[in-house]
Specification:
35% of the residues lie in helices and 18% in strands. It is α/β, with parallel strands linked by helices. It folds into 3 domains: 3-271, 3-Layer(aba) Sandwich (Rossmann fold), CATH 3.40.50; 286-452, Nucleotidyltransferase, domain 5; 462-507.
Amino acid sequence: MNIDTKKLIQTKFLAFAMKAFATINKGKSLGNDKYLKLLAERLTRVAAGETKRLVVSLPPRHFKTFMGSICLPAWILAHNSSAKIVILTYGQDLADKNAYAIREILRSDWFQQAFRTRMKRDRAKLVDFATTDGGGVRSLSIEGGVTGLGADYIIIDDPVEIKDCDNTKRLERVNELFDNEIQTRLDNPKKGCIVIIAHRISENDLPGHLLQKNGWKQLKLPLIATCRRKYDLGDAGVWVRKKGELLRRDAFTKRDIQRLRGSKQPGFESLQQQNPGGSDRLRIKAKYFPTFPSAELPMRELPVVLSIDPGQKSGPENSFTVIQVWCSKDGAHLLLDQWRKHAHYRKVRRAVKRFIGKYRPSVVLIEATGQGPALLSEIKPQNGMELVGITPVGDKVERLRKHRLTIRRGLVQLAQGASWYGEFIREATEFPYGSFDDQMDALSQYLTWIADHPNPPKRPPLATIQRGTTQGRPAGAGTQTNGIAVARRSRQMFNVPFPRVKTWVKY
């Protein structure tokens, strides 16, 4: 091996993978498709510790297992021989196959010429081998048991078989295993890295489960590009993928694509396009939203969150302004009240002021679009009330898609007998093809925020209203003074001057 080749293998993950592929596959070529450069760039970030949580979703037969479950562990050990790596997959047969390939790479002549990492002779088992510096690989089925194991890197490769795409119990079992056992195996959760490498088979699969949570990055590449998109390849430049372009341009004929489109469960859209549930419609049903008796809620004990989606301006052709009143109880999200109007700014401001005064929220979420910035600038902080401006990121369908499992489980509930119940259900079931989507925007804004802040504090109770002792006060003046104090407190929500009065409220 000449010096240039050696340096290339040592410094470029894709060159390393190409050499490894030829080793494992008796001289065959990995190919030079552009997506391999993108995949290599993302996995390199994981190896370097720059990306801590990554989900990679690719169609079958696109080398995701080879790149992510075989080459990535070998590359990590090549540069850090003390690294401890756990690899999990749906079955022990695949786990054995992956471990065998990694071990063959580490034993190859070219690897030993390029790197100093060596395997321990007295610990070279197929599924549990170690390096002379204390690192190594443990490769198991996801049900193999990880208790007692520790890792710097956890790689999960296809945790569920394709045939189990509609096996709800199996999907939930894998998600629970990850939450309760697998992710706890990192020796240093802050520095440790987890990679999920899987084609999508269901909205409820492990990638779908994790992408609802904060902190996960995703590389999702459909078999056929649905739109033109640019990808940053790092040092390799930029890849512009055109609409309709295949990932492996020379690997599939039109007849192959037709055959794949005709496949049943989990279907072409899920398995090949990495888009379970369809291209864009979420298929939300009215039955997913149970009702609750709002009169029976212990409101004084529950924190309230307002979610506000401000419209642009009044007029029937413009979007609605929506104010939603939420609280959470026993894992469910309860929509207590809602205001939805085509309204000019002053009317919106009055409605926001009224809802804050009535429900005393702990948190007020306001989308920073339309009339939102004006509201954010005028609302004054209050004791125990947090004001949060939200800048929406990404497509609104994808923002709500992240919470579809929460909705389908009946965890979004509506107040019984609410006057707005029908318009909410109509918009939800027609989304995103209905005339308006403002209620769904407010809903996804709340669900996204509460997922990251599951225990908002309860608003402290109002302090006692102090009253003056003016002599000669007419009967009923005490009530009037209280009303003035409440009006004063409501005005203090905004930067609006108010008349001098002798009463005051302590916050």
